[in-house]
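Hi Y.,

Following your request, here is the sequence exactly as I used it, all 507 residues.
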Amino acid sequence: MEKPILEMKSITKEFPGVKALDKVTFSVKRGEIHCLVGENGAGKSTLMKVLSGVHPFGSYTGEILVDGEEQKFSGIHDSEKAGIAIIYQELALFPELSVYENIFMGNEITQGMSINWNETITQAVDILKKVNLDVNPSAKIKDLGVGKQQLIEIAKALKKEVKILILDEPTAALNETDSDNLLQLIRELKDQGVTSILISHKLREVLAIADTITVLRDGKTICTMDTHTENVTEPVLIKNMVGRSIDNVFPRRENIKIGDEVLRLEDWSAYSPGLGRDILKHVNVNVHAGEIVGIAGLMGSGRTELAKSIFGNPDHYRLSGKLYVKGEEQNFKNPHDAIKSEMAYVTEDRKGNGLILIQDVKQNISLANLKEIAQNGIINENEEIVIANEYKRDLNIKTPSIEQKVRNLSGGNQQKVSLGKWLFVKPGVMILDEPTRGIDVGAKYEIYTIMNSLVAKGMSIIMISSELPEVLGMSDRVYVMSAGKVNGELPIAEATQEKIMELAIDY
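Below is the corresponding structure, written out as tokens. Let me know if you'd prefer a different format.
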């Protein structure tokens, strides 16, 4: 029997007050696609950081064997020398530099004392072919879409003659087409002898590509399953991940009561001076109290731009058309105006724009409504603590303390903090942009339950989502956008994935 290319034996890793990994055993066969799944906080990323040298030898206990030889990585450079490369969800590219400069960063081709740029470009073209990417190697990274940037990260890894490629949530920010292209590339790399380890919350994606799947829960190895010999299904994975069955991924809403109209857009258009073009064209939508309105569409269709244009226009688009809140025409000059009209916007980029990661939970929750707990410009810290503890309890934010830095929380709990921050402004209309991106199935269920609870109390939710099952499972109505226009409106009883995609694609 062939030895595994990778064995991790009894890996234990502790942080102050937390045992992140508890005697985890993990092995990968040569040339397979191995998926690592589990809830946020299960230990997946920590395990891969141990493997890649981010957590060096001595900071954990246990053994790592690559090709049967024990490894004691003191840093990332050591793991790369052993043929291991990791690509994180937050891509490590330099946006102002060219494609070829990024591929060869730190591994420059030299001639004497200078860099041989001609040879660099020639080799870059060859590597780009390996990842099926047809771009000008001189193009700047910032001018490329996220899908192409992801492929360039893989090209960087291939330049280093990688044996084991680790991808952390590689499709989290990609549209369906880019996701399919990436998964196909991983299959092709398998044929070329590259072993891949994928961390993903997208269980359908996992089942479509995995040869084997390892489940972690609470820092422990629960099981490893072979998809070719075992009947591995989504319910089986969910049960192993969360320790219980979740029969319906989307919790049911009882006694749905749709109230009066609370928001209406008429002939709403937006021009972006930065892009030099119209990004929204004659949009007409309405939202009622107690309703979840889904906004579907492909990446670049204008969904986030629509949200921002409504929420005080922070990107300074040139707007035309009319915006009504509770029947009164509004002209928001900034997000503060929108907040005063009881609107809230939970951004898709919780780490970049939604939260201040170096601050703690209580500071983030109070951030959007400091005037509520301040007097004469001084924050009442006791009141801040009381409010933060209320949202910690009501939203089931899993944190040792409200004084925990938000950067130390799992993705699902960060999202709950972001929700708490905007609930504290007591909105009537809440815009949720990709509310469950990058979070696990258990945390998703909790977010959905919170959403249902909010609309049951009369709040209105506009939900932008790239996950069609989520749109169909949570919405009362769906608007489908394409190229800045609303191509159609579907009552949920008539909506299907096929109908949404037909409206989302401009022929």
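The chain is about 30% helix and 25% strand.

Thanks again,
Q.
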